[in-house]
């Protein structure tokens, strides 16, 4: 298993989900379904068969394949397992058991606006045994789609010596056990465990001498180790000084000046994973396309209060205001 790009770092400058549509043009309509629980993908088309193939020097004559057609979400991508094939690689069992090659056909959709490799922080779970998976090397354009492949070699012991039963027992798992995992089972009746990113309706303008407009917002699970059942709320904003006479007066905006209060009363500053850190806002300098990121606990539901608290170069002057964001 090879470690993949970490979501909060890899998308630091250009995050935008394919579920876009949460702008000031229609601030009251969510851009995507609220799908934050496990089991978020339909089983799709599913078929299996045993295929007779000519035996060669490496393996047996029998193989099995299954059309999986199930989708999960991880690391800024929608990942679909299209098809899985199991091919016995040894006709002679050893003390370790024979081996079976598992080949996966995958489809990727990059949900962020930056070219990136699909996540590889994954393994195959076969009846509780962890099997390393090797992915083909590629990158996918921002908002782009691509096909890919992955391979694994499984010790075929007991029931999994049968290629069909092996595929029925296999699940592709992304992420560590202490993070928000995505699990895509190959069995027909297996349910995907994943959390679908979703757009959050915004478009509010707040402030006074400095006007702040919330332009986009998205909620998705944290994929970082140790952050199971935590979410990242990404809020894009712009800030313009509308009352900074003579270009002399300016205001400081940084992570500590934008906070989020949860429904339980916890107040959070913008997290260090925010790609934006600090800016000076004046008549000649504005902020545009900046992202503030907040790490919040599950269930990530209810009304959250966003507050700005900017201090002017004349420290007696402040811009303070709040607005409500509903998740």
At the fold tier of CATH, the topology name of the largest domain is Immunoglobulin-like
Q: Kindly state the mean pLDDT as a whole number?
A: 83
User: Can you tell me the overall shape?
Assistant: elongated
Structural class: mainly beta
Tally of individual helices? 2
SSE order, one letter for each helix or strand: HEEEEEEEEHEEEEEEEEEEEEE
Unreliably modeled segments: 1-61
Strand line-up of the largest beta sheet = 1-2-3-4-8-7
What kind of sheet is the major sheet? Answer: 6 strands, antiparallel
Radius of gyration: 24 Å
Oligomer state equals single chain
Please identify the top-level CATH class of the largest domain.
Mainly Beta
Just name the CATH architecture of the largest domain: Sandwich
Distance between the termini: 34 Å
Count of the domains: 2
Give the number of DSSP strands.
21
Amount of helix: under 10%
SS strand fraction: over 45%
